[in-house]
Design goal:
The protein is an alpha/beta fold. It has 28 helices and 27 strands. A seven-stranded mixed beta sheet has the order 13-23-24-25-21-26-27, with helices on both faces. A hairpin with an 8-residue loop joins strand 7 and strand 8. Helix 10 packs across helix 20.
C-alpha cells in the first residue's frame, strides 16, 4: 500500500485514490465517484485552471483541516474535458468503478468500497478516438534508442507507431541528423532513456517526452514483440539486430502500458533506409513550407495545393509522401506512371473519385474496434467500405503497375461485408452501444423475441387474456397493480376456475388469479429491455471478433484505398493546373523550362515563369533587388524537385530532374533565443550542416549568405563558401546574394554563372519584371525598395544622397576613400524632401471665399475644378503609361 500524501485526508476513499495516483505520478488522475470524475490535490489545481471549472475543497471533521483541493467533471461529458487536458500537454489516467455497490457489499460487507482501477492512460502519442485526432494528420508514438552504449551515443534507432492505424516503422539515425529525422515525422510523443534524453532537448517539447528506462531492456523488449506479433523469434519480423528489437519492443511495450495490455492489429515493422528517400533537414522543411506555413494557413503549403484527396487516410498518406519524397528512379516512375494513367483517362479518374466517396477510415475504425472503443458506426463504416469495393475494382480494371497492385488488395472482405450487411440496421446507427437498436430485425431470433416483448407488450397481454377467457369460459379481465403486478380478475359469482389458475387475492366483489404463463410473460416483460441490450452487446462482440479475423485484409484494403486516393489527387491537381510529367533520370541534370512556384502560382494569375538548367558542379549566382523574386525562384526550384520525386507532375512547360539525394535550403533569417543563438549563428550552423553533408547529387539553395555580420566578413564567408561548393561539393547550387563582388567568380571558377532578376527603373520608380536573365544585376536598388515600402520621404532622400557619395568615393579611391568621405556629409542636416509646387486646382481653392459662394456658384466652381483636374492629369498619365509599357517590352 502506498504512503498517503500529507495533502490528502486519511480516509478509505482517499487511500484508494492515493494507491492509484502512486502508479501514475506524471498523469492527472480522473477518479470515478458516482456520476463524476473527481481530481484531488495538485491535480485538481492544474485541471481547474486548464478547464476553467470551480476549485473546491474536501474537508473532514478533523479540527484545523483546511480541506483538500478538488474539482470534478460529469462522466458523460468527460471526453471533451479530457481533450482539453491533452491539448494543454497533460497526460490523463482514467480510474473507473469496476464493480457495482451490490458486488462490493457481497465481497466485503456493508462498508466495503467499490473497487476501482485505471482502465486507460491518455497520452499524446497513443490516441485512437476521433475526438482527439485530426482526420488527415496522425499523432505518432516514437521511441529513440541508442545502438551504442556510450554516455553520448552517436548511432540511434528511431521507431514509430500510429496506434490509430497499426502502422510501425523504424530507421537508423546519427546523432548529428537527429533533429532532421524527427522533423520528418508528426510525432505526438517520444519515449527515451535517460541517456538519450539530453540529445533531444530543444528538439522535442518536454511535454511530449516520456522517460521510461525499464522498457529498453532487451529481454523486456523481446517479450513485448512476442506478445504483440505472436512470434517465437522477433528476428522473423526483420529485426535481426538487437538495437532494432529494443526500439520496436520498447515502442510496443509503452503502447501496452497506456492501453492496459490491449493492442490493435500491428503491421510488420517497415525499415526505412536513408538511401530510399530524399533527405530534407529541418531548416529546409521550414523554408519550403512543405506541410506547414508560418501563418498556419494550410493553403500556403505544398500539401495544401496537392490535397485533393477524398478520404482521411489518403490525406495522411499524401502528407507522408510530401514529407518524405523518394530518392530512387524506379519507384518514382512507378508512381508517375499511375498518375499519368489517371491524367490521360478522365472517365476512369472520375469513377475512382466517386467510388472513394462512400468509403471510410478503415484502419482507424479497426483499431478502435479491436481496442474495445469501437461503436456501431465503426461497423457501419466497414460495411459501407466493403459495399463500395466492387465499383472501385471496376474503376481500375485493366490497369497495370501500382493501380493493378492496389486493385488486387481491394479483395478479401466479401464474407465480412455480407455478414455486416445482414447484421446491421440501416444508417444512421447510434454512436454509443448503450443506445441499442443497431442490429437489424430478423438477424437474431432471440433479439427479435426480446424486441417483440418490448414493442408488443400490450398485444401479448391481450392475447393471453383472450386465450384464458376462451379456455375457461369465464368473464375474466386482465388487470395490473403495483403490489400484485398482472392478474386475472373474475366476479365472485363466477363458477369453478381452471386448475392451472393460482389464487392471489379476494376482494369484496371478485377473485384474483395468476397463471404460470402470465407470471413468465411478466418476468420477460420486466427484463426485456436489459436482455435486449445484453444480447446486442453479445452480437457486437461476435462481429468484432469477425473483424479481428479479417484485420489483415482490412488493413490491406485501407492501404490500397489511401494509395489510390493519393494517385487520383495528384492526377486531378495536374489536370486542373496544367502541369506536366517530368523526365526523372539518375544523373546530375536539372532542367526546368518555364517553371512556376506551385503555391504562389495557384493564387497569382499573372505569375512570371522562369527556367533553370544545372548539372552537378554548376552554381548560379543570382543577384537583383529585394522583392524582385529571388527567394520565390529559389524555393520553386526546390519544390519542383520535391514534386518530381514524390511522383507528381510539376508546374512547368517541360522538366528533366536528375534524382537528388538531398535538398538543403537556407532561405530567410531567424534566431533561436531559447538556445542562445543569434541570427548569424543560426545561419552559420545551417551553412555548416550543408557544407558537411551535401554531395554531388544534392540540390543546394542559399539565400543572402553572410548578411548577418560585417560587410567584409560576410563577403569573405560567402566567397569561400562558393569556392567550396563548386570545387569540392560539386552539387547543383542556386546562390542568391547582394554581394556583387561575387559576380567576378564567374570568370574564375568553371561552373559558376551569373544570373539576375530583371528590373526597370522608370522616372525614378522601380518596376519588377520577375524574370531571371543571364548576367549580373547593376545594383540592389535598396533605396528604391525602401521608397516602395513607405519609408519616410526625407529618410529616402537622405539615403540617396549618402549612397551617391559612397559610390563616388568608392570609384575614386576604394575602401579608404569611403572611410575618408567628408564627415560633414554624414552629419549634415538631412536633405529636405522636395516640395511640389501647388497645382492650379489647389491655387484656385486657396483663392476662393467659400463662405461667400451661393449654392449655384459652388456647384459651378466644383465642375470647373474637376474639369481642370481631368485636363491636367489625363495627357500625362497616357504618355507615362505608353512609355512604361514600351520600356517593359524592351
Amino acid at each position: 500500500m502506498s504512503t498517503l500524501p500529507a495533502t490528502l485526508p486519511d480516509t478509505p476513499i482517499m487511500r484508494q485514490y492515493a494507491e492509484l495516483k502512486a502508479q501514475y505520478p506524471h498523469a492527472l488522475l480522473l477518479f470515478r465517484m458516482g456520476d463524476f470524475y473527481e481530481l484531488f490535490a495538485d491535480d485538481a489545481v492544474v485541471a481547474s485552471h486548464v478547464l476553467q471549472i470551480t476549485l473546491t475543497r474536501r474537508r473532514t471533521a478533523k479540527e484545523g483541516d483546511d480541506g483538500t483541493p478538488m474539482c470534478g467533471v460529469p462522466y458523460h461529458a468527460a471526453e471533451g474535458y479530457i481533450g482539453k487536458l491533452l491539448q494543454a500537454g497533460h497526460r490523463v489516467a482514467l480510474a473507473e468503478q469496476v464493480e457495482t455497490p451490490a458486488e462490493a457489499k457481497q465481497r466485503g460487507g456493508s462498508g466495503a468500497l467499490m473497487a476501482r482501477k485505471v482502465v486507460r492512460l491518455f497520452t499524446p502519442g497513443t490516441l485512437t478516438e476521433e475526438a482527439y485526432l485530426e482526420a488527415k494528420r496522425p499523432s505518432l508514438l516514437a521511441v529513440l534508442s541508442a545502438e551504442d552504449n556510450g554516455p553520448q551515443p552517436q548511432r540511434l534507432v528511431l521507431a514509430w507507431l500510429d496506434l490509430s492505424t497499426g502502422e510501425v516503422g523504424l530507421r537508423g539515425v546519427g546523432a548529428a541528423q537527429l533533429a532532421h529525422s524527427l522533423a520528418a515525422l508528426p510525432i505526438g510523443e517520444l519515449v527515451v532513456t535517460p541517456t538519450v534524453a539530453p540529445l533531444v532537448e530543444g528538439v522535442v517539447s518536454r511535454q511530449l517526452l516520456a522517460v521510461q528506462p525499464q522498457l529498453f531492456a532487451l529481454s523486456t523488449a523481446q517479450a513485448a514483440l512476442k506478445r504483440a506479433y505472436g512470434v517465437a523469434d522477433p528476428s522473423g519480423l526483420g529485426l535481426a539486430e538487437p538495437a532494432r528489437q529494443v526500439a520496436v519492443g520498447a515502442l510496443v511495450g509503452y503502447a501496452e502500458l497506456t492501453q492496459m495490455g490491449a493492442l490493435p492489429r500491428l503491421r510488420p515493422p517497415h525499415l526505412q533506409l536513408a538511401s530510399t528517400h530524399l533527405q530534407l533537414d529541418a531548416a529546409t522543411r521550414q523554408s519550403l513550407n512543405l506541410t506547414t506555413s508560418p501563418s498556419g494557413q494550410r493553403r500556403e503549403t505544398l500539401l495544401g495545393v496537392l490535397d485533393d484527396t477524398i478520404t482521411a487516410a489518403g490525406g495522411r498518406l499524401l502528407a507522408r509522401w510530401v514529407s518524405e519524397p523518394l530518392a530512387q528512379v524506379a519507384p518514382i516512375l512507378a508512381r508517375q506512371a499511375a498518375v499519368t494513367t489517371l491524367v490521360q483517362q478522365p472517365t476512369r479518374r472520375q469513377q475512382l473519385r466517386q467510388g472513394l466517396a462512400p468509403t471510410g477510415d478503415v484502419a482507424r475504425a479497426v483499431s478502435r474496434l479491436l481496442l474495445g472503443r469501437g461503436s456501431p458506426r465503426d461497423l457501419a463504416l466497414l460495411r459501407a467500405t466493403g459495399q463500395a469495393l466492387p465499383a472501385l475494382q471496376a474503376a481500375v480494371a485493366d490497369c497495370d503497375g501500382l493501380l493493378a497492385t492496389h486493385r488486387a488488395n481491394l479483395g478479401g472482405l466479401e464474407p465480412l461485408t455480407a455478414e455486416l450487411s445482414q447484421a446491421l440496421a440501416a444508417d444512421p446507427l447510434p454512436a454509443l452501444v448503450r443506445d441499442g437498436n443497431f442490429i437489424a430485425d430478423g438477424y437474431d431470433a432471440e433479439l427479435d423475441r426480446l424486441r417483440t416483448l418490448q414493442r408488443d407488450a400490450q398485444q401479448l397481454l391481450a392475447a393471453l387474456e383472450a386465450t384464458e377467457v376462451a379456455q375457461s369460459g369465464l368473464n375474466a379481465k386482465l388487470r395490473y397493480n403495483q403490489v400484485w403486478g398482472y392478474y386475472l380478475e373474475v366476479p365472485k359469482s363466477a363458477g369453478a376456475v381452471p386448475p392451472h389458475w393460482v389464487h392471489r387475492q379476494t376482494t369484496t366483489t371478485s377473485h384474483r388469479y395468476s397463471t404460470p404463463a402470465l407470471l413468465q410473460l411478466e418476468r420477460e416483460l420486466g427484463s426485456a429491455a436489459a436482455q435486449a441490450q445484453a444480447r446486442e452487446e453479445a452480437l457486437l462482440a461476435t462481429l468484432v471478433a469477425l473483424v479481428q479475423t479479417h484485420s489483415v485484409a482490412l488493413l490491406n484494403v485501407s492501404e490500397a484505398l489511401a494509395t489510390l486516393d493519393v494517385l487520383q489527387a495528384l492526377a486531378t491537381v495536374a489536370v486542373q493546373h496544367g502541369w506536366v510529367a517530368p523526365v526523372v533520370v539518375d544523373s546530375g541534370q536539372l532542367v526546368l523550362q518555364e517553371a512556376k512556384h506551385p503555391v504562389v502560382a495557384a493564387t497569382v494569375a499573372d505569375f512570371v515563369p522562369n527556367s533553370v538548367q544545372l548539372t552537378s558542379g554548376d552554381l548560379w549566382l543570382l543577384t537583383g533587388p529585394n522583392m524582385a523574386g529571388k527567394s520565390t525562384f529559389l524555393r520553386q526550384t526546390a519544390l519542383l524537385v520535391v514534386l518530381a520525386q514524390l511522383g507528381s507532375y510539376v508546374p512547368a512547360r517541360a522538366a528533366t530532374v536528375g534524382v537528388a539525394d538531398a535538398i538543403y535550403c537556407r532561405v530567410g533569417a531567424a534566431d533561436n533565443l531559447a538556445a542562445g543563438q543569434s541570427t548569424f549563428m543560426v545561419e552559420m550552423l545551417e551553412t555548416a550542416n550543408i557544407l558537411n553533408r551535401a554531395t554531388a547529387r544534392s540540390l543546394i539553395i542559399l539565400d543572402e549568405l553572410g548578411r548577418g555580420t560585417a560587410t567584409y566578413d560576410g563577403l569573405a564567408l560567402a566567397w569561400a563558401c562558393v569556392e567550396d561548393l563548386v570545387q569540392r561539393v560539386q552539387g547543383r547550387t542556386l546562390f542568391a546574394t547582394h554581394y556583387h563582388e561575387l559576380t567576378a567568380l564567374a570568370e574564375q571558377l568553371p561552373g559558376v554563372s551569373n544570373h539576375q532578376l530583371a528590373v526597370k527603373v522608370w522616372q525614378g520608380e522601380l518596376v519588377f519584371l520577375h524574370a531571371v536573365q543571364p548576367g549580373a544585376a547593376q545594383g540592389s536598388y535598396g533605396v528604391q525598395v525602401a521608397k516602395l515600402a513607405g519609408v519616410p520621404t526625407a529618410v529616402v532622400a537622405r539615403a540617396q544622397s549618402l549612397l551617391q557619395g559612397f559610390e563616388a568615393a568608392a570609384k575614386a579611391g576604394g575602401k579608404q576613400a569611403v572611410a575618408r568621405l567628408d564627415s560633414l556629409s554624414l552629419f549634415a542636416a538631412p536633405v529636405a524632401a522636395p516640395v511640389a509646387a501647388p497645382s492650379a486646382v489647389e491655387s484656385a481653392l486657396r483663392a476662393t471665399d467659400v463662405d461667400g459662394l451661393s449654392p449655384r456658384e459652388a456647384l459651378t466652381l466644383l465642375y470647373q475644378l474637376k474639369g481642370q483636374l481631368t485636363a491636367s492629369n489625363a495627357p500625362k498619365q497616357t504618355a507615362a503609361s505608353v512609355t512604361t509599357e514600351q520600356n517593359l517590352l524592351n
